[in-house]
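Good morning,

Attaching, inline, the C-alpha coordinates for the sequence recovery test we're adding to the shared suite. The designed sequence is right after.
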Protein backbone atom coordinates (compact mmCIF):
# COMPACT_ATOMS: atom_id res chain seq x y z
CA UNK A 1 0.00 0.00 0.00
CA UNK A 2 1.44 3.34 -1.12
CA UNK A 3 0.83 6.82 0.25
CA UNK A 4 0.56 9.91 -1.90
CA UNK A 5 3.44 12.27 -1.00
CA UNK A 6 0.98 15.15 -0.49
CA UNK A 7 3.08 17.60 -2.48
CA UNK A 8 2.51 21.30 -1.88
CA UNK A 9 0.55 22.43 -4.98
CA UNK A 10 2.48 25.73 -4.91
CA UNK A 11 5.91 25.22 -6.48
CA UNK A 12 7.30 28.71 -5.86
CA UNK A 13 6.27 31.64 -3.67
CA UNK A 14 7.28 35.01 -5.11
CA UNK A 15 5.89 37.42 -2.56
CA UNK A 16 2.13 37.60 -3.15
CA UNK A 17 2.54 35.59 -6.37
CA UNK A 18 2.13 31.82 -6.18
CA UNK A 19 3.36 29.59 -8.99
CA UNK A 20 1.44 26.30 -8.92
CA UNK A 21 2.78 22.96 -10.10
CA UNK A 22 -0.36 22.48 -12.19
CA UNK A 23 0.35 25.64 -14.14
CA UNK A 24 3.99 24.59 -14.60
CA UNK A 25 2.82 21.25 -15.97
CA UNK A 26 0.70 23.10 -18.53
CA UNK A 27 3.72 25.19 -19.54
CA UNK A 28 5.88 22.06 -19.78
CA UNK A 29 3.18 20.41 -21.88
CA UNK A 30 2.97 23.33 -24.30
CA UNK A 31 6.76 23.50 -24.60
CA UNK A 32 7.05 19.74 -25.14
CA UNK A 33 4.35 19.81 -27.82
CA UNK A 34 6.18 22.66 -29.56
CA UNK A 35 9.51 20.79 -29.47
CA UNK A 36 7.98 17.56 -30.76
CA UNK A 37 6.15 19.51 -33.47
CA UNK A 38 9.38 21.12 -34.67
CA UNK A 39 10.98 17.67 -34.91
CA UNK A 40 7.99 16.32 -36.81
CA UNK A 41 7.99 19.38 -39.05
CA UNK A 42 11.42 18.39 -40.37
CA UNK A 43 10.21 15.03 -41.65
CA UNK A 44 10.30 15.06 -45.49
CA UNK A 45 6.63 14.18 -45.93
CA UNK A 46 5.58 16.90 -43.44
CA UNK A 47 7.90 19.86 -44.15
CA UNK A 48 6.56 22.47 -41.72
CA UNK A 49 8.75 25.45 -40.79
CA UNK A 50 9.35 26.48 -37.17
CA UNK A 51 7.41 29.65 -37.86
CA UNK A 52 4.33 27.69 -38.95
CA UNK A 53 4.68 25.35 -35.97
CA UNK A 54 4.83 28.30 -33.56
CA UNK A 55 1.84 29.94 -35.24
CA UNK A 56 -0.38 26.87 -35.07
CA UNK A 57 0.53 26.16 -31.46
CA UNK A 58 -0.44 29.72 -30.51
CA UNK A 59 -3.92 28.96 -31.86
CA UNK A 60 -3.97 25.57 -30.14
CA UNK A 61 -2.92 26.95 -26.74
CA UNK A 62 -5.80 29.43 -26.85
CA UNK A 63 -8.15 26.63 -27.87
CA UNK A 64 -7.02 24.40 -25.02
CA UNK A 65 -7.36 27.07 -22.34
CA UNK A 66 -10.63 28.63 -23.48
CA UNK A 67 -12.22 25.37 -24.60
CA UNK A 68 -11.08 23.50 -21.50
CA UNK A 69 -12.58 26.11 -19.19
CA UNK A 70 -15.84 26.49 -21.10
CA UNK A 71 -16.16 22.71 -21.45
CA UNK A 72 -15.73 22.22 -17.73
CA UNK A 73 -18.46 24.75 -17.03
CA UNK A 74 -20.80 23.10 -19.52
CA UNK A 75 -20.16 19.45 -18.66
CA UNK A 76 -19.18 19.40 -14.98
CA UNK A 77 -20.04 22.68 -13.21
CA UNK A 78 -23.12 21.60 -11.24
CA UNK A 79 -23.93 21.54 -7.56
CA UNK A 80 -25.20 18.54 -5.58
CA UNK A 81 -28.78 19.32 -6.65
CA UNK A 82 -27.85 19.28 -10.32
CA UNK A 83 -28.13 23.05 -10.76
CA UNK A 84 -25.76 24.70 -13.22
CA UNK A 85 -23.43 26.89 -11.14
CA UNK A 86 -22.74 29.64 -13.72
CA UNK A 87 -26.50 30.06 -14.03
CA UNK A 88 -26.65 30.93 -10.35
CA UNK A 89 -23.40 32.91 -10.26
CA UNK A 90 -22.17 34.05 -13.73
CA UNK A 91 -18.88 35.27 -12.24
CA UNK A 92 -17.93 31.59 -11.83
CA UNK A 93 -16.93 31.66 -15.49
CA UNK A 94 -14.06 34.02 -14.74
CA UNK A 95 -12.80 32.40 -11.53
CA UNK A 96 -10.17 30.29 -13.25
CA UNK A 97 -8.11 30.14 -10.05
CA UNK A 98 -10.83 28.00 -8.48
CA UNK A 99 -9.91 25.21 -10.91
CA UNK A 100 -11.85 23.29 -13.50
CA UNK A 101 -10.61 22.22 -16.94
CA UNK A 102 -12.16 19.61 -19.23
CA UNK A 103 -10.27 17.55 -21.81
CA UNK A 104 -13.33 17.22 -24.02
CA UNK A 105 -13.93 20.96 -23.85
CA UNK A 106 -10.27 21.57 -24.67
CA UNK A 107 -10.63 19.21 -27.63
CA UNK A 108 -13.53 21.25 -29.00
CA UNK A 109 -11.44 24.38 -28.51
CA UNK A 110 -8.59 22.82 -30.49
CA UNK A 111 -11.01 21.89 -33.28
CA UNK A 112 -12.04 25.54 -33.57
CA UNK A 113 -8.37 26.60 -33.48
CA UNK A 114 -7.51 24.17 -36.28
CA UNK A 115 -10.35 25.44 -38.46
CA UNK A 116 -9.33 29.07 -37.96
CA UNK A 117 -5.64 28.37 -38.56
CA UNK A 118 -6.28 26.31 -41.68
CA UNK A 119 -8.52 29.03 -43.09
CA UNK A 120 -6.13 31.89 -42.32
CA UNK A 121 -3.11 30.05 -43.76
CA UNK A 122 -4.98 28.47 -46.70
CA UNK A 123 -4.14 24.91 -45.63
CA UNK A 124 -6.22 21.76 -45.73
CA UNK A 125 -7.98 21.13 -42.43
CA UNK A 126 -6.82 17.51 -42.57
CA UNK A 127 -3.18 18.59 -42.85
CA UNK A 128 -3.38 20.80 -39.76
CA UNK A 129 -5.44 18.31 -37.72
CA UNK A 130 -3.16 15.38 -38.51
CA UNK A 131 -0.08 17.44 -37.68
CA UNK A 132 -1.42 18.53 -34.29
CA UNK A 133 -2.89 15.14 -33.31
CA UNK A 134 0.54 13.49 -33.11
CA UNK A 135 1.93 15.81 -30.42
CA UNK A 136 -1.20 16.45 -28.30
CA UNK A 137 -0.69 13.36 -26.07
CA UNK A 138 2.43 14.90 -24.54
CA UNK A 139 0.26 17.70 -23.17
CA UNK A 140 -2.19 15.12 -21.85
CA UNK A 141 0.70 13.39 -20.08
CA UNK A 142 1.91 16.51 -18.27
CA UNK A 143 -1.64 17.52 -17.40
CA UNK A 144 -2.29 14.20 -15.66
CA UNK A 145 0.99 14.46 -13.80
CA UNK A 146 -0.27 17.83 -12.61
CA UNK A 147 -3.45 16.14 -11.36
CA UNK A 148 -1.32 13.61 -9.48
CA UNK A 149 0.84 16.30 -7.88
CA UNK A 150 -2.34 18.02 -6.70
CA UNK A 151 -3.62 14.72 -5.28
CA UNK A 152 -6.91 15.07 -7.19
CA UNK A 153 -9.01 12.89 -9.50
CA UNK A 154 -8.07 9.69 -7.69
CA UNK A 155 -9.75 6.42 -8.55
CA UNK A 156 -11.97 3.96 -6.74
CA UNK A 157 -10.91 2.04 -3.65
CA UNK A 158 -8.76 -0.97 -4.54
CA UNK A 159 -6.97 -3.90 -2.93
CA UNK A 160 -4.26 -3.94 -5.60
CA UNK A 161 -0.71 -3.61 -4.21
CA UNK A 162 -0.21 -0.33 -6.09
CA UNK A 163 -3.26 1.23 -4.45
CA UNK A 164 -2.46 4.64 -2.98
CA UNK A 165 -3.83 6.58 -0.02
CA UNK A 166 -4.75 10.14 -1.00
CA UNK A 167 -5.05 12.52 1.93
CA UNK A 168 -7.71 14.59 0.17
CA UNK A 169 -9.93 11.51 -0.18
CA UNK A 170 -10.34 11.61 3.61
CA UNK A 171 -10.96 7.89 4.05
CA UNK A 172 -7.44 6.52 4.67
CA UNK A 173 -8.12 3.78 2.10
CA UNK A 174 -5.99 2.83 -0.94
CA UNK A 175 -7.35 4.11 -4.26
CA UNK A 176 -6.42 3.51 -7.87
CA UNK A 177 -3.90 6.20 -8.89
CA UNK A 178 -6.00 6.80 -12.00
CA UNK A 179 -4.10 9.99 -12.83
CA UNK A 180 -1.01 7.85 -13.47
CA UNK A 181 -3.03 5.36 -15.53
CA UNK A 182 -4.18 8.23 -17.72
CA UNK A 183 -0.68 9.71 -17.96
CA UNK A 184 0.65 6.34 -19.11
CA UNK A 185 -2.14 5.45 -21.56
CA UNK A 186 -3.64 8.70 -22.85
CA UNK A 187 -0.23 10.35 -22.67
CA UNK A 188 2.87 8.26 -23.29
CA UNK A 189 1.29 5.21 -24.96
CA UNK A 190 -0.86 7.29 -27.30
CA UNK A 191 2.11 9.52 -28.15
CA UNK A 192 4.20 6.48 -29.08
CA UNK A 193 1.41 4.99 -31.22
CA UNK A 194 0.78 8.21 -33.16
CA UNK A 195 4.48 9.07 -33.49
CA UNK A 196 5.23 5.69 -35.06
CA UNK A 197 2.09 5.74 -37.21
CA UNK A 198 2.85 9.26 -38.41
CA UNK A 199 6.39 8.43 -39.54
CA UNK A 200 4.98 7.60 -42.98
CA UNK A 201 2.50 9.51 -45.17
CA UNK A 202 -1.07 8.66 -44.19
CA UNK A 203 -4.47 9.39 -45.77
CA UNK A 204 -6.25 12.64 -44.82
CA UNK A 205 -7.67 12.56 -41.28
CA UNK A 206 -6.28 9.06 -40.63
CA UNK A 207 -3.96 10.25 -37.84
CA UNK A 208 -6.74 12.36 -36.36
CA UNK A 209 -9.10 9.39 -36.50
CA UNK A 210 -6.59 7.11 -34.81
CA UNK A 211 -6.08 9.68 -32.05
CA UNK A 212 -9.81 9.91 -31.38
CA UNK A 213 -10.34 6.14 -31.40
CA UNK A 214 -7.39 5.29 -29.16
CA UNK A 215 -8.05 8.10 -26.68
CA UNK A 216 -11.70 7.07 -26.41
CA UNK A 217 -10.72 3.44 -25.75
CA UNK A 218 -8.11 4.34 -23.13
CA UNK A 219 -10.29 6.90 -21.34
CA UNK A 220 -13.42 4.72 -21.41
CA UNK A 221 -11.50 1.85 -19.84
CA UNK A 222 -9.93 4.01 -17.12
CA UNK A 223 -13.32 5.47 -16.22
CA UNK A 224 -14.25 2.06 -14.75
CA UNK A 225 -11.72 2.64 -11.94
CA UNK A 226 -11.82 6.46 -11.80
CA UNK A 227 -14.36 7.99 -9.45
CA UNK A 228 -16.84 10.32 -11.17
CA UNK A 229 -17.08 13.98 -10.22
CA UNK A 230 -18.99 14.10 -6.93
CA UNK A 231 -21.50 16.67 -8.21
CA UNK A 232 -22.48 14.37 -11.10
CA UNK A 233 -21.96 10.85 -9.84
CA UNK A 234 -22.82 7.94 -12.12
CA UNK A 235 -25.26 8.76 -14.89
CA UNK A 236 -28.74 7.30 -15.46
CA UNK A 237 -28.66 5.41 -12.15
CA UNK A 238 -26.27 2.89 -13.70
CA UNK A 239 -23.77 2.72 -10.89
CA UNK A 240 -20.92 2.61 -13.42
CA UNK A 241 -21.57 4.88 -16.45
CA UNK A 242 -19.81 8.27 -16.14
CA UNK A 243 -19.84 11.58 -17.98
CA UNK A 244 -16.33 10.75 -19.23
CA UNK A 245 -17.63 7.56 -20.82
CA UNK A 246 -20.53 9.41 -22.41
CA UNK A 247 -18.23 12.00 -23.96
CA UNK A 248 -15.91 9.29 -25.29
CA UNK A 249 -18.64 7.61 -27.35
CA UNK A 250 -18.94 10.39 -29.97
CA UNK A 251 -15.13 10.61 -30.04
CA UNK A 252 -14.90 6.91 -30.92
CA UNK A 253 -17.61 7.15 -33.59
CA UNK A 254 -16.00 10.27 -35.06
CA UNK A 255 -12.60 8.61 -35.11
CA UNK A 256 -13.93 5.59 -37.00
CA UNK A 257 -15.61 7.93 -39.47
CA UNK A 258 -12.36 9.84 -40.05
CA UNK A 259 -10.41 6.62 -40.60
CA UNK A 260 -13.05 5.32 -43.01
CA UNK A 261 -13.02 8.61 -44.90
CA UNK A 262 -9.22 8.75 -45.05
CA UNK A 263 -8.74 5.23 -46.32
CA UNK A 264 -11.47 5.67 -48.90
CA UNK A 265 -9.40 8.46 -50.48
CA UNK A 266 -6.62 7.61 -52.96
CA UNK A 267 -4.27 10.45 -51.99
CA UNK A 268 -2.02 10.32 -48.92
CA UNK A 269 -1.04 13.27 -46.76
CA UNK A 270 0.64 13.75 -43.36
Amino acid sequence: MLVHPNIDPVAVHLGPLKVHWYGLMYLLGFWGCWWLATVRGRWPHVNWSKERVSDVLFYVVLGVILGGRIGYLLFYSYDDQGRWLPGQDPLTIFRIWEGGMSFHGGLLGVVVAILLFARSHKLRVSEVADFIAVVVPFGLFTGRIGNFINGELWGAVTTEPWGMIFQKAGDNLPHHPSQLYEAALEGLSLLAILWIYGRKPRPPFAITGLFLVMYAIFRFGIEFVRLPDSQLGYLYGSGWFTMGMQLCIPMFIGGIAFLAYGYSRPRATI
